[in-house]
């Protein structure tokens, strides 16, 4: 597959050579997750518009975030912002269980159809307000958020296991949207700034029309 091969070459140029992750990405064709008009751009580095006025991050950034999340076999993962469902599908090939939330009913329905087509039965996709995470489902080993918070979302500490990792964008004082990796140490986060990302501010509530 030319698109996937090009992605692998770009990622290797950035030093990302996680064989297991790349196998999971290859087994999850991005062409299934983009609108038909955008299939030629499925493996491009740029963002791809999807339904409900949303977008899916470029293939390079998606792979980089999954690499930084460091999901291990047997882990429980929470994703805030299902979007097309691509990242949840890749995570599900390693994790024991994935919970993915989105405020748009249409996105959840479309993602669920893709999960079923790929035979992924360990994903729970829900239309919900995920701005405060997910309560009532226990703690998670990993949490991935694809919308930006104004400040460090410290409330996620209670939803992570000891040593758990939160990957989330945070808006900086200069307006930059910075991807942060936060590791739970005791009752606090050890925070690491990674790189700027093109995510929008997180929205609250469930979408009514879509």
Automatic annotation (TrEMBL):
Subcellular location: Cytoplasm
MF terms (GO), sorted A to Z: protein-L-isoaspartate (D-aspartate) O-methyltransferase activity
Domain of life: Bacteria
Annotated EC: 2.1.1.77
Keyword annotations of the record: Cytoplasm, Methyltransferase, S-adenosyl-L-methionine, Transferase
Pfam families referenced in this protein's UniProt entry, alphabetically: PCMT (PF01135)
Record's GO cellular component terms: cytoplasm
Gene3D superfamilies: Vaccinia Virus protein VP39
Presence of the UniProt keyword Cytoplasm in the record: yes
Statement: the UniProt record of this protein carries the keyword Isomerase: no
Alphabetical list of PROSITE patterns matching this protein: PCMT (PS01279)
InterPro entries to which the protein is assigned, alphabetical: PCMT, SAM-dependent_MTases_sf
One GO term of the biological process aspect: methylation
Family, similarity comment: Belongs to the methyltransferase superfamily. L-isoaspartyl/D-aspartyl protein methyltransferase family.
Name listed for the protein in its UniProt record: Protein-L-isoaspartate O-methyltransferase
């Amino acid at each position: 597959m030319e698109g996937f091969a090009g992605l692998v070459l770009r990622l290797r140029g950035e030093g990302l050579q996680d064989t297991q992750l790349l196998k999971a990405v290859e087994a999850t064709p991005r062409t299934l997750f983009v609108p038909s008009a955008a299939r030629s751009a499925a493996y491009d580095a740029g963002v791809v518009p999807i339904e409900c006025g949303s977008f899916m991050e470029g293939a390079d950034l998606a792979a980089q975030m999954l690499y930084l999340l460091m999901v291990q076999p047997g882990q429980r993962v929470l994703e805030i912002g299902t979007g097309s469902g691509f990242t949840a599908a890749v995570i599900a090939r390693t994790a024991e269980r994935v919970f993915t939330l989105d405020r748009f009913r249409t996105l959840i329905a479309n993602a669920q159809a893709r999960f079923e087509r790929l035979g992924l039965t360990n994903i729970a996709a829900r239309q919900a307000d995920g701005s405060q995470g997910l309560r009532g489902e226990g703690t998670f080993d990993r949490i991935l958020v694809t919308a930006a918070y104004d400040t460090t979302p410290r409330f996620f500490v209670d939803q992570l296991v000891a040593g758990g990792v939160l990957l989330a964008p945070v808006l900086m004082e200069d307006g930059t949207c910075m991807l942060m990796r936060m590791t739970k140490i005791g009752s606090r986060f050890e925070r690491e700034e990674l790189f700027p990302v093109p995510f929008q501010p997180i929205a609250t509530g469930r979408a009514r029309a879509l």
